[in-house]
Design brief:
By secondary structure, this protein is α/β, with parallel strands linked by helices. Helices cover about 40% and strands about 15% of the residues. It contains 29 helices and 21 strands. Strand 3 and strand 4 form a beta hairpin. Helix 13 packs across helix 28, helix 15 packs parallel to helix 16 and helix 16 crosses helix 17.
Length: about 850
């Protein structure tokens, strides 16, 4: 017999000799598992036997002496048989019939309904939760149904506490399992009192010498004062406005204190420490202590104790959805252990192992979902659009500039997608000014020349108008002279075959566009979300293009797609997406990266200025305006707020016009203006009637003024690096040397260091990686993405974890893409729970 089994049998026999008092091992038999489980796995003990022993011992402290005797006797017999399960507990080869399942569910429900619901006070002990409920249905129905029971099934939690817990998002027992601490305090380090130093955060064990209560401040404040000694010295301990503590502390009783050592009148003291009687299980002292987010009427101590009761009983009953071979290959701990260690870690190492497991699960489930989406999309058929070499060569030859290598590759990718017979599903990612518009125009041409229709949806009216003017000129052979030099292709469409549809479009014109789309004589429509409104119908929509795609929600993109039958989809973004994010969130899309800038485009000279150097920026603007150029000044707010000291566009526009640039014409652009007002401001800036445009982040996309050469950004520390890069891309589009000046709110060294990256590189991908590290994925996704929004533990900067999870997901998907095997049923359930109703696009 293996040494680990011999050792545990000796402990079981010792426990029997002691009358099953749970003291054969210091701290109780359940504490034995911390050391025994790793040893058993090294010994190669069968996993099913390990799980049985673990489940029995986790429950052991809550059992009566009679039940403890039965549990240990059963374990001893099983170990002596070599781990073979007795006939009565074998899993039947055939699933139970409906009547059996119904009886199990009724038994479970009746057991839960009989629990006494008693409101619990701060000091009342919480009875062990539902000790007799056994996950009897787990063999054929997955996890116990009780995990989805309301928290009111727990003794001591009635409607009032349930309503309070609901404010934390806790409604069911499962919610409690996954309501993880927001941080941890390390009180695992013990120190004798005579070695304490000011500022220490430690645990002290001693005996209460004295305790008393006195009033302060005319009776409005009560202070409990106790003296605790450990034989080396005495420590004065105080609690403010917690008179109940004096009733619980008794002289001569040993207690454990955890907190920060403070100083008063030259003596070391502890103020408001966590404390527990030494004979109790220590949840708040002498360990790594979980700290949960709270709401009114819930204390940290009460929630911690309640969570411990639930976690220790129910976490071992959570079914692990990860196939065992995946967990072994990825070297991950099991899910029940991860949940327990996340709440009540035995060490920082165990906590990190638990985080790794939960983070892996998130990326793994995300990847499986993404792979399923990609496969489902690839199984669809789409119309084939052949593009002859001669036609494409003629179009490219008609451009006033050669295509870059990146543009040529992008065109080839799109051409291949359109001829494949499967719907295109591609992300075109190109930095500001890399030439995505002409690539999109060629793709549109490949489709409309065969009589089909195309739609381009963008997030703002400003950007829609910009695209409309560019594409109108490009595709009819009549480019607008003031635009950014997209150039004209040989005519592919007539003016009336290209239309613009935005919210401000007159209703009569909208009706005309709707009729033209339904009848098929309008071949290309550019617009905002107005395109997906119900009245809009297409005769033959075959290509949908979405620009700045991260600004649209899942439902909006799906609605545009639904206007046709399996149309080809091209999504574009000027925000460089870090590799780790592309691997994770956009794994269902084919990716084309345009990382090459057209010839003649000079890098924007970028500088970080201290607030006191602002006059230098104003001087540069004056000098550039004298040369006939124009400038932007960006502010983080529209109007000043009492809650922030950030500078605001409206007030600063007035100040700049009167005090700084009285001889220049300044315009004002922000999101609260009406569409007509915005259009008027932009038209005057584009026509050079306005020298300096004062604006908010509304100019981030869609405003092309080639004559603008200065971008001054106030409160630059309030923007992400990717957003600053977008602002910078608004200047220098005409080929002249341009400047970007970043002025933070205050001369903060950390912020200046972050902004300095802008001065060091014009590479959007480098900035995107830094932005992801510093500010998180929200910068790249905007609206909540299905599945992605569920990530709590996975860091999208952890490329190694992402690649490991992706590799495991791909291997499993290649083996069984439908997860049809019965062993994958828990994974299928977890996948459904993770993705919720978001089974459509995520990207």
């Amino acid at each position: 017999m293996k040494s680990s089994l011999q050792k545990i049998l000796k402990i079981f026999k010792l426990e029997a000799e002691r009358g099953y008092d749970n003291h054969a091992v210091m701290g109780g038999l359940d504490r034995l598992l911390d050391h025994w489980l790793p040893e058993a796995r090294v010994d190669g003990i069968p996993e099913d036997l390990i799980q049985i022993i673990e489940n029995r011992l986790r429950d052991y402290p809550r059992l009566s002496p009679t039940s403890r005797a039965e549990a240990l006797e059963g374990l001893i017999k099983r170990i002596q048989r070599g781990g073979a399960p007795p006939p009565m507990e074998t899993i039947p080869s055939e699933p139970p019939d409906e009547q059996q399942i119904e009886r199990i569910d009724l038994l479970l429900e009746s057991t839960l309904d009989e629990q006494v619901q008693v409101e619990v006070s701060e000091t009342a002990p919480i009875p062990a939760p539902v000790p007799e409920v056994r996950p009897a249905a787990a063999a054929w129905k997955g996890e116990p149904a009780a995990l989805d029971a309301q928290v009111t099934v727990l003794p001591g939690i009635g409607p009032r506490h349930a309503q309070t817990l609901a404010r934390l998002g806790i409604h069911t027992l499962r919610d409690m399992l996954y309501y993880f601490p927001r941080r941890y305090d390390d009180y695992s380090r013990l120190k004798p009192i005579n070695r304490l130093q000011y500022g220490d955060e430690v645990t002290v064990i001693g005996t209460v010498q004295s305790v008393g209560v006195r009033s302060l401040r005319n009776g409005h404040t009560q202070m409990v004062e106790a003296v605790v000694s450990d034989g080396t010295a005495a420590l004065r301990v105080t609690w403010f406005n917690q008179a109940w503590v004096s009733k619980r502390l008794q002289s001569g009783h040993p207690i454990s204190l955890s907190g920060k050592v403070d100083q008063y009148l030259g003596r070391l003291v502890m103020n408001n420490p966590e404390w527990e009687p030494i004979e109790q299980q220590q949840l708040s002292t002498n360990r790594i202590v979980p700290v949960y987010a709270l709401t009114a009427q819930i204390t940290q101590r009460w929630l911690r104790k309640t969570m411990n009761e639930v976690i220790m009983y129910w976490a071992p009953r959570v079914q692990d959805p990860l196939p065992p071979e995946v967990a072994r290959s990825a070297r991950l701990i099991d899910l029940p252990s991860a949940i327990i260690q996340m709440h009540f870690p035995d060490s920082w190492e165990e906590l990190e192992n638990a985080r790794q497991r939960l983070a892996f699960d998130e990326i793994f489930l995300l990847q499986i979902g993404v792979l399923q989406q990609k496969r489902a999309w690839e199984e669809q058929t789409a119309r084939v659009f052949e593009t002859e070499d001669a036609w494409l060569e003629e179009q490219v030859a008609g451009l006033p500039f050669p295509l870059t290598g990146a543009q040529q590759k992008a065109v080839a990718d799109l051409r291949g997608d359109l001829v494949s017979g499967r719907p295109m599903n591609r992300l075109l990612q190109g930095d500001v000014g890399s030439g995505k518009t002409v690539v999109a125009a060629l793709a549109i041409g490949m489709v409309v020349r065969h009589g089909a229709q195309a739609a381009l949806m963008v997030p703002t009216s400003i950007l829609a108008e910009q695209h409309y003017k560019n594409l109108l000129g490009t595709m009819t052979g009549k480019p607008a002279p003031s635009e950014d030099g997209v150039g004209a292709l040989p005519p592919m469409l007539q003016d009336w075959e290209i239309r613009l549809m935005i919210g401000a479009t007159p209703e009569a014109e909208k009706n005309d566009i709707r009729r033209g789309l339904a009848e098929g004589w309008i071949k290309l429509v550019i617009g905002t979300h107005a395109l997906i409104e119900e009245p809009v119908q297409f005769a033959n929509l075959q290509l949908t293009i979405i620009d700045e795609q991260h600004r649209f929600g899942v439902e909006q993109r799906a609605a545009l797609r639904a206007k046709g039958e399996n149309p080809h989809l091209l999504v574009m973004t000027a925000t460089p997406i870090p590799r780790s994010l592309a691997l994770t969130v956009y794994g269902d899309l084919d990716l084309t990266v345009m990382d090459e800038m057209p010839e003649g485009r000079q890098p924007v000279s970028t500088h970080v200025l201290a607030p006191r150097e602002r006059e230098r920026a104003y001087a540069l603007i004056r000098s550039q305006v004298k040369l006939g150029r124009q400038a932007f000044i960006i502010y983080p707010l529209v109007q000043e707020s009492e809650k922030t000291e950030a500078m605001a566009a409206v007030e600063e526009h007035a100040r700049l016009q009167s005090a700084i640039f009285p001889d220049l014409q300044l315009g004002l652009l922000h999101g609260r203006l009406s569409l007509d007002e915005k259009d008027d401001v932009m038209r005057r800036f584009r026509d050079r009637d306005v020298h300096v445009l004062v604006a908010t982040s509304v100019v981030e996309v869609g405003l092309d003024v080639p004559n603008a050469t200065v971008m001054l950004i106030e409160g630059a520390n309030r923007f992400g690096l990717s957003q600053l890069h977008q602002f910078r891309g608004r200047v220098g589009r005409g080929g002249d040397q341009a400047y970007c000046l970043l002025v933070p709110d205050a001369p903060d060294a950390v912020e200046n260091e972050r902004l300095q990256v802008m001065a060091e590189t014009n590479d959007g991908f480098v900035l995107a990686e830094r932005d992801l590290e510093q500010r998180g994925p929200g910068q790249f996704l905007g609206t909540s993405q299905s599945g992605f929004a569920e990530l709590q533990f996975a860091s999208l900067t952890d490329v190694r974890l992402i690649e490991k999870a992706r590799h495991q997901a791909q291997a499993l998907f290649d083996q069984d893409p439908n997860l049809a095997g019965p062993q994958y049923q828990p994974l299928t359930i977890a996948l459904r729970r993770f993705w919720g109703d978001g089974r459509g696009d995520i990207s």
